[in-house]
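Input (structure):
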C-alpha cells in the first residue's frame, strides 16, 4: 500500500489565522484531517505589525491543528497578501541556439530567468512567474513550446512580487514556532485554486477574495493568470464605518453587520424610523444598511478601476466569483451585478473531503487553495 502524503497550510489573515492538514492518497484525492482556527492578532492589511502576537497566534493555530489531526506539522504552505504586492505583465525573447533548434526545458527556464533578473528591483522578492503564452518564430498562442522547432522563443508572463522586508517578517513569525515554509503563495491565486473550475479559467473569470483587511484580485483567461492585484479594502473597513457612523463599539458594529446588514438594501415596506437592537444598542435599520451599501459599492468600483481595459467586457464571460469571509454579506452578488454589469456569484471551496466540513465556507478559500497548490508537482508552471 502506497504511503499517503501529508500537506499543511496556514493562512495568516487580518481577522483570523487558519491552519489545516490534509492527506493525499495514491488517487490524488485530498482529504482534510485537521483544522485550527484562531482570532488574528498583530496583523494589519496583510502586514505583520506585532511580531510576538502574530507568532503566538500561529503557534496556537498549529497546535489546534496537530491535536485534531494527530499529525506533527513541520512545514507549511503560507498565503500572503497586502497592498504592497504587485502583479505585472512582461515579455522576453531568447534565441534557440541548439544545433537542431528544438526548444528544451532549459530554454524555458532561461527565458523566465531573464524576466526575473532584468525587470525586478533588488528589494523585491518574486513570488510567482506565470507563463501566459509563448510565441515560437512569430506564431503566438503556444501553451507549451517544448519539443517544437524554433529559432526565436518569446514568452509573455505574469510576475507577482512583494517587498523582501514584508516577506522576511512573515517567514520569521512562522520560523519562530519551529515550522518551515514550503512556499509562499499569493492569496488571490490560492483562493482561485479553491473556487474556480478549469472551465472558469479558460473562458475568462475574475476572482475577488474579500478578506478582513484586503481584497485579492486574480483574472484568469485561456487557462492562466492575466492580471492580479490587491485592494486595501475589506470587511474590517465596513465594520469601522458602522462603528463611526452609528457610534457603536467595534464588536457590536461587527455583530450588527453580520446579523442585520445587507449590501443591497430592499426595505420591503420598512418604515424610515425602524430600528434593530443588539446587546442594548439600537440603530436605524436603513442607516446601517446604507453604510454597508456605500462601502461595498466603493469596493466594486475599485475592482472595476483596477482591471485592465480588456478585462472589463466580454473577455471575462465567466463573470466575477466572490469569496473570502466578507463575501458572505447578504445581497453582495446583487450589488456586484448592478455595479459591474457582469455575472456575479459567491463561492465556497469546491470538492472538499474529510473532516473539514467547517471549511465549506468562503472564508476558507485561501486555506484550501494553499493545500491544492501544495498538491502540484514541484516547478509546475502555473
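Output (sequence):
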Amino acid at each position: 500500500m502506497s504511503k499517503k502524503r501529508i500537506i499543511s497550510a496556514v493562512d495568516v489573515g487580518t481577522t483570523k489565522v487558519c491552519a489545516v492538514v490534509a492527506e493525499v492518497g495514491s488517487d490524488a484525492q485530498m482529504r482534510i484531517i485537521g483544522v485550527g482556527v484562531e482570532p488574528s492578532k498583530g496583523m494589519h492589511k496583510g502586514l505583520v505589525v506585532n511580531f510576538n502576537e502574530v507568532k503566538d497566534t500561529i503557534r496556537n493555530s498549529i497546535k489546534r491543528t496537530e491535536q485534531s489531526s494527530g499529525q506533527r506539522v513541520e512545514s507549511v504552505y503560507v498565503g500572503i497578501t497586502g497592498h504592497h504586492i504587485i502583479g505585472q505583465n512582461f515579455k522576453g525573447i531568447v534565441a534557440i541556439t541548439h544545433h537542431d533548434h528544438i526548444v528544451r526545458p532549459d530554454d524555458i527556464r532561461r527565458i523566465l530567468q531573464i524576466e526575473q533578473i532584468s525587470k525586478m528591483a533588488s528589494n523585491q522578492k518574486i513570488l510567482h512567474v506565470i507563463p501566459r503564452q509563448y510565441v515560437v518564430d512569430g506564431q503566438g498562442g503556444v501553451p507549451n513550446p517544448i519539443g517544437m522547432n524554433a529559432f526565436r522563443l518569446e514568452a509573455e508572463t505574469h510576475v507577482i512580487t512583494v517587498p523582501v522586508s514584508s516577506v522576511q517578517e512573515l517567514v520569521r513569525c512562522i520560523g519562530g514556532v519551529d515550522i518551515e515554509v514550503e512556499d509562499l503563495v499569493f492569496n488571490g491565486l490560492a483562493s482561485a485554486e479553491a473556487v474556480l473550475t478549469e472551465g472558469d479559467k479558460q473562458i475568462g473569470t475574475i476572482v475577488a477574495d474579500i478578506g478582513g483587511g484586503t481584497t485579492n484580485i486574480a483574472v484568469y483567461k485561456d487557462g492562466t493568470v492575466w492580471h492580479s492585484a490587491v485592494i486595501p479594502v475589506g470587511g474590517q473597513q465596513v465594520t469601522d464605518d458602522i462603528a463611526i457612523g452609528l457610534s457603536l463599539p467595534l464588536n457590536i458594529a461587527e455583530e450588527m453587520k453580520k446579523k442585520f446588514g445587507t449590501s443591497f438594501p430592499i426595505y420591503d415596506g420598512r418604515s424610515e424610523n425602524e430600528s434593530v437592537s443588539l446587546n442594548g444598542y439600537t440603530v436605524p435599520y436603513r442607516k446601517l444598511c446604507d453604510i454597508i451599501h456605500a462601502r461595498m459599492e466603493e469596493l466594486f468600483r475599485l475592482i472595476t478601476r483596477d482591471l485592465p481595459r480588456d478585462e472589463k467586457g466580454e473577455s471575462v464571460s465567466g463573470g466575477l466569483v466572490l469569496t473570502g469571509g466578507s463575501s458572505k454579506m447578504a445581497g453582495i452578488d446583487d450589488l456586484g451585478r448592478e455595479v459591474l454589469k457582469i455575472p456575479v456569484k459567491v463561492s465556497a471551496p469546491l470538492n472538499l473531503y474529510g473532516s473539514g466540513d467547517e471549511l465549506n465556507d468562503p472564508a476558507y478559500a485561501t486555506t484550501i487553495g494553499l493545500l491544492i497548490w501544495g498538491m502540484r508537482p514541484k516547478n509546475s508552471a502555473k
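Notes: The domain at 86-163 is CATH 3.30.1490.110 (Dna Ligase; domain 1). The chain has three domains: 5-83+165-196+348-375, 86-163, 235-345.
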